[in-house]
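Posting this for the archive.
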Amino acid sequence: MLKYWTAGESHGKTLLAMLDGFPAGLEIDFDLADTELRRRQGGYGRGGRQKLETDRLEVLTGIWQGVTLGSPLTLQVINKDYKLERLKELERPRPGHADLVGAVKHLGSIRGVLERASARETAVRVAAGAVARCLLRQFGIETIGYVTEIGRLAVETPAGTLTEHRQMRDESSVYTLAPQRDVEFENLIDQTADDGDTLGGIIEVRVEGLPVGLGTHAQWDRKLDGKLAQAVMAVQAIKGVEIGLGFEAARRPGSQVHDPIHYDASQKQAPNLGYTRPTNNAGGLEGGMTNGQPLVVRAAKKPISTLRKPLDSIRMDTKESHRASYERSDVCAISAASVIIEHVVAFEIAAAMVEKFGGDSVQEMQDRYQLYLERAAEH
């Protein structure tokens, strides 16, 4: 079983992730991981901390000369800006954050809660997802994440290959597939900043090259759509998850929702085993299992909770009304969120691959994968 845990606080010295279940023989692409960590720090509308940090992946255990040993991996991302012990306690909880309920739950301080609840922790989740992508690439599986909406501004997903879409996204200051509209989005973010407010948005992640049959219909807690939804919803500030048509499927009759099944013998040896669909409204998942079509996952991110013009709150000591506290923060972090969501999805897909084809080494996984495709193609 492939799984991971994270440790470390926003203003601690280091962020850690413990990964267990990766097969031996996987070469870790540190350039890929560091590029994705840099992208997570980018995007128009980010705050001042991103100018201080230079996130890089370090692997402390589980590798030899850059190749996994099959033992647990310990990933580390260093915080340059660490000052937890010197920071003042927050006296006024911020609406929308974990401040109030966390302090009440643990009978402790707001500061201790907010530092762990901070999305800074997602740096090592991106690192874990980058390692997972190294595994997926051994099977021709690729991922991409991008922004489709910021506030009330939206862009359509244009036609093109995944490679072409990556180029479009990487040319965009806000990580959409429409770099020609960057100025429009930047102006919206600037105006929101001037108003002392924040913005959220919508993210889409697509995974291509998936075989038929990852996940299961047999147990509710092992269905892949459920695992993906849990992983995505567990990212800070995510308030909704859709797969394929998502909520739109509830508004249409079945004839406009379900994807007809065709067969193309020329694709028999492909991961989809020749089963094709003229549409992909299911988003690549049926019955909790991949169906050979591209996986499409969408996430809704709420605006950042910390406002420069704070909302009403109270003082924790006296319970008297007061404006909420202000902490250094972003105006819009939707671009960074698209990187995070892509990588938590990648990790769940890698976990599903290990569950179905797992072995002690990457070579053993590849052998099992090829045997499965051969037998399934004859079914």
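The CA atoms of residues 144 and 206 lie 5 Å apart. The chain has one domain: 3-377.
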